[in-house]
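Incident log, support desk, overnight shift.

02:14 A customer reports that sequence design results differ from what the structure should imply. Their input is reproduced verbatim below. On-call engineer (initials T.W.) acknowledged and began investigating.
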């Protein structure tokens, strides 16, 4: 009787969760075809566009086309959540990929597309991330340019060893010699795969990874090149830069907050996986159990353990979400500094429209941003500290850029700064 009561109590506690999961699974199953079709279209076609146009393509064109064809899909499907898990995103962020949604989408396209990525990267954000994601690129010097006279010979080693390779500073065209590689025109002989590059047959390992980057802000790639590669726009956006600057500022001003947020995100990911593992273990034991369930003491013990663990994990998840909201509110106090920094950077970038010599790299601007944080007057109140940093940042950026301008353009720069800040 005791065994029966334990079994009934354990199963009863899991009933509600299982019924909810069943309903969610059924809905997901019905909408999976439409969701996968939409995700495929997103990865295939949205890479070259900015955030507003990507949103317009997915929410209007793709969704309306699927609905018109009578294909069920999830309303307001979040592409980032559908295509990648939070643990992977956290790893990318640690490797240097910005945490804004556009950058996460770019990371998905780089890693999920079957075609090799060609990244539009005027601020070198993609290069920095890829180098940290693929340390072999730097360790074994697998970074080349199209002008390298030994490119054909250099390709051979990473190609046959299944290693990553990067080609930097691509302009508007790629050497036709690489066409068989971009199109993956390999042949199979026995268990080995071979690919012919410039009349030379080379061993081909499917684990080989090719990354291509362009420093041009608005390159004119041919339709043929677009068909052979996945073009991805890594150009920094104002919202994305604001998020980056906020994270950079918090890591210096309130380092414990940023560390807490990172730890909470890791805990949520871990606890969610633990809960899924418990469910899987329980269902596996129920499915493989023979005979009378009351006679299976191990199964009853596992049910009781899972009941306790599930409750504990759910409490941790609720606590983590509450803390995340609390930390987010504290981070928002520093938002005005990040917003001002993003406005100033794009003001500086737009000065290149006045004269192309006024180019300023993102790395230079980040140096000014860090310097302003370091030299701004300290204050007890966060509100006063934010005002001090914002004032110092505005002054330093103005002085730094102004000294490199022609006299006739200085008034224009002042006007641009003033109007954008206001």
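02:41 Re-run completed on a clean worker. Output:
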């Amino acid at each position: 009787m005791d065994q029966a009561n334990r079994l009934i109590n354990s199963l009863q506690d899991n009933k509600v969760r299982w019924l909810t999961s069943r309903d969610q699974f059924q809905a997901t199953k019905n909408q999976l075809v439409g969701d996968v079709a939409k995700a495929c279209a997103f990865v295939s076609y949205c890479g070259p566009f900015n955030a507003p146009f990507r949103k317009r393509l997915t929410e209007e064109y793709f969704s309306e086309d699927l609905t018109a064809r009578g294909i069920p899909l999830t309303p307001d499907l979040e592409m980032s959540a559908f295509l990648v898990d939070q643990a992977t995103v956290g790893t990318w962020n640690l490797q240097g990929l910005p945490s804004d949604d556009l950058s996460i989408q770019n990371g998905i396209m780089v890693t999920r597309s079957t075609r090799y990525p060609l990244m539009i990267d005027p601020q070198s954000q993609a290069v920095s991330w890829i180098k940290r994601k693929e340390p072999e690129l730097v360790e074994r010097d697998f970074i080349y340019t199209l002008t390298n006279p030994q490119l054909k010979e250099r390709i051979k080693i990473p190609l046959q060893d299944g290693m990553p390779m990067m080609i930097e500073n691509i302009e508007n065209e790629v050497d036709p010699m690489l066409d068989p590689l971009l199109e993956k025109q390999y042949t199979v002989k026995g268990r080995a795969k071979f690919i012919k590059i410039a009349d030379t047959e080379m061993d081909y390992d499917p684990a080989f990874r090719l990354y291509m980057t362009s420093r041009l802000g608005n390159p004119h790639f041919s339709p043929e090149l677009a068909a052979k590669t996945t073009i991805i726009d890594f150009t920094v956006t104002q919202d994305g830069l604001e998020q980056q600057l906020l994270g950079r500022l918090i890591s210096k001003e309130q380092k414990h907050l940023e560390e807490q947020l990172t730890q909470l995100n890791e805990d949520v990911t871990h606890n969610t996986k633990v809960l899924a593992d418990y469910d899987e273990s329980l269902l596996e034991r129920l499915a493989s159990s023979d005979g009378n369930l009351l006679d299976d003491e191990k199964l009853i013990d596992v049910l009781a353990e899972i009941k306790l663990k599930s409750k504990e994990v759910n409490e941790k998840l609720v606590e983590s979400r509450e803390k995340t909201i609390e930390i987010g509110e504290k981070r928002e106090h520093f938002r005005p500094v990040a917003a001002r920094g993003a406005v100033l950077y794009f003001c500086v970038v737009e000065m290149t429209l006045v004269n192309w010599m006024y180019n300023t790299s993102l790395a230079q601007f980040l140096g000014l941003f860090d310097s302003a944080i370091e030299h701004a007057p300290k204050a007890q109140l966060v509100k006063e500290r934010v005002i001090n940093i914002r004032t110092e940042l505005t002054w330093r950026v103005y002085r730094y850029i102004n000294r490199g301008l022609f006299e006739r353009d200085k008034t224009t720069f002042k006007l641009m700064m003033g109007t954008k800040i206001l």
